[in-house]
Task: inverse folding
């Protein structure tokens, strides 16, 4: 499918629009395609040379060359790259951004997390850490709890768009049966689901916090069930939909969890994240600690909005310091 088929020729008019934002969008659209075509070409050449490379791009290129199973088209390869870049980049990076700030606001939680990493890894250097041994332990412990709680309170998709499609659908709500007509668009309000006190009890504000800022309800240890040996708390179906549920749930969930565990374990084993404060490690800090914390908490409420995903538009200065 060409871009004309996908978007109609009207999309081309953006390039002739008097608005610079339209021109930029059009140029980005074209350039992104050219970059990706170059990447696909390079990956194809690597394959032709018989060089091993196990990555997502290689799987897509292989599917494009698979005569036996039926090739997927060039535009399907580009479309899939687009979905993975769109779905995979902003989601994990913004989640990481929120986690860094939340840990800086809550040094006591950060210390407990670092203690759990020290207990798990001991003196083993990162070069010996493995997906098979270390990832399941991290995901089912303190680190997994911090990630799960952050995507609950600061879920990257505050709403998930769905459609009933060509036929009507029935749903049960509080014992009543309802019919939703065909071709109806439904927005599932993830934020509201994740704040329903029936499933997610409100945590009293921690010292220095002022409700109702969402950060006051960020309580990672609510997920830990270590005493009972069950790993993390298993929420009731439908009450935790950060990665959605069902056939179209996030295909990159495990990828995101591995990525976040790897980055956070590495950063926090060797360093700490602090709010930049006056006289502290960062030259930029101009506030004392309590002021910097209040500012960060406020930004996590007022400064958060939706761009490509939920993100912090406000500014919070952080320092990364060595634990030595
Ligand atoms: C914290 C990280 C992430 C969160 C919270 C998240 C969440 C979601 C959600 C809520 C959906 C919508 C599912 C639906 O429509 O029912 C989705 C879809 C998707 N995600 Fe993620 N995602 C994350 C990371 C990633 C990563 C790292 C990748 C790729 C490597 C990825 C790839 C995708 C794709 C391809 C879809 C579309 C799936 C489909 O329509 O069948 N996501 N994600």
Result:
């Amino acid at each position: 499918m060409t871009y004309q088929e996908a978007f109609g020729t009207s999309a081309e008019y953006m390039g002739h629009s008097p608005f610079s934002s339209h021109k930029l969008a059009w140029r980005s659209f074209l350039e992104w395609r050219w970059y990706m075509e170059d990447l696909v070409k390079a990956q194809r050449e690597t394959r032709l040379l018989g060089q091993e490379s196990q990555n997502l791009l290689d799987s897509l290129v292989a599917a494009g060359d698979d005569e036996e199973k039926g090739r997927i088209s060039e535009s399907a390869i580009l479309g899939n790259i687009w979905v993975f870049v769109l779905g995979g980049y902003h989601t994990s990076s913004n989640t990481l951004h929120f986690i860094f700030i939340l840990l800086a606001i809550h040094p006591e939680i950060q210390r407990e997390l670092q203690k759990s990493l020290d207990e798990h890894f001991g003196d083993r250097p990162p070069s010996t850490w493995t997906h098979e041994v270390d990832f399941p332990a991290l995901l089912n412990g303190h680190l997994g709890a911090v990630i799960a709680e952050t995507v609950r309170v600061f879920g990257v998709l505050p709403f998930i768009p769905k459609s009933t499609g060509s036929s009507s659908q029935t749903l049960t709500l509080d014992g009543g049966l309802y019919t939703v007509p065909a071709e109806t668009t439904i927005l599932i309000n993830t934020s509201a689901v994740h704040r329903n006190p029936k499933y997610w009890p409100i945590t009293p504000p921690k010292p220095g916090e002022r409700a109702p800022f969402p950060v006051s309800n960020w309580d990672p240890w609510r997920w830990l069930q270590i005493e009972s040996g069950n790993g993390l708390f298993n929420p009731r179906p439908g009450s935790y939909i950060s990665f959605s549920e069902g056939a179209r749930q996030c295909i990159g969930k495990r990828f995101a969890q591995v990525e976040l565990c790897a980055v956070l374990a590495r950063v926090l084993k060797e360093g700490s994240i602090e709010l930049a404060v006056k006289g502290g490690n960062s030259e930029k800090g101009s506030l004392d600690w309590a002021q910097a914390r209040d500012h960060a908490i406020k930004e996590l409420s007022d400064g958060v909005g939706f761009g490509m995903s939920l993100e912090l538009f406000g500014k919070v200065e952080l320092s990364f310091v060595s634990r030595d």
Summary: The first strand starts at residue 159 and ends at 163. The chain has a mean pLDDT of 89.
